[in-house]
Amino acid sequence: MSRKLKKGYFVRGEFVAEGSERDLELKAELKGTDEQSRTDLKRESTELQKLGADLLELRADLLARLDLSDKFKDAILDAKRITNFEGKRRQMQFIGKLMRKLEPEVLDAVKKTLSEEATGSAADNLMLHQAEIWRDRLIADDDASAQWITQNPGCDSQELRALIRQARKDAKPAKPGALPRHGRAYREIFRLVREQLGAIPPHDHTDTPFSPAREAS
User: What 3-state class would DSSP assign to 97?
Assistant: First the structure.
C-alpha cells in the first residue's frame, strides 16, 4: 500500500507540511504583510539560516566569546555530531529558529565574529602562500637570500644560508630520474620565513619582490 503524501509546499528547497510548526511559523511571519515585506522576510530568514550554519565552522574560542545561551551552544555542538541527513536538516532548522530569536546586538556580534574569522583566515592563507614562494626562491636563486636579509635584517643570516645549502644538497635526487627530496632544512626555511612574515603587517606582505602580484606584473 502506497504511503499517503503529506500536503505542503517547498520553501528554499525545504518541504513544509501544512499545519506543521514550521508552516505556522512562516504564516505568522507573512501574515498582514505586503509582497515586498514578504520578500524581505524570506531574504532575512535565508541570511539567518546561513549565519547559523556558519557558526558550526567557527573556532571554539570565538564561539565562546559570543553571548549565546547554553541551549544555543548545545544545539551547535549537537549539529556538529549529527551525521544523519534528516537529523542534520532538522537540527539546522532548530538553529535557524534560535537565530531569529537573537537580540539585535547579539546578532551583530555574530556577524562581526564570523567576518573576523573569515578575514583572519584569508590573511593566514596569503601569508602561507608567500612563505612558500620565498622558500622556493631562496633555495633556487642565489640572489634571493641577499634580498631577504636586506628586507628582514633581524633574521639570522648565517642560519638561513646554512639551511639553504643543506636544502640544496637534500634536493639532489639519489639517482638519475628520481624526484627531488625535501628534508628538514626545507621545512626549517619555510618555518623561518613564515615566522618573519607573521611579524610584518598584512598590507606589507604584498610589497615583497616574490609576491604573486609582483610576479604577475
Answer: helix
Residues 66/106, Cβ–Cβ less than 8 Å: yes
Residue 123 · residue 202 · CB < 8 Å: yes
pLDDT tens-digit series, residues 120-172: 666 677 788 888 999 999 999 989 989 998 998 888 889 999 999 999 988 88
> pTM for this structure?
0.41
- Looking at residue 179, what DSSP letter applies? P
Query: Which amino acid is present at 68?
Result: L
- Contact indicator for 32, 24 with CB cutoff of 8 Å: no
Report which of 17, 13, 20 is spatially closest to residue 4, judged by C-alpha positions: 17
CA distance to 57, 63, 177, per residue, from 109 (Å): 16, 11, 56
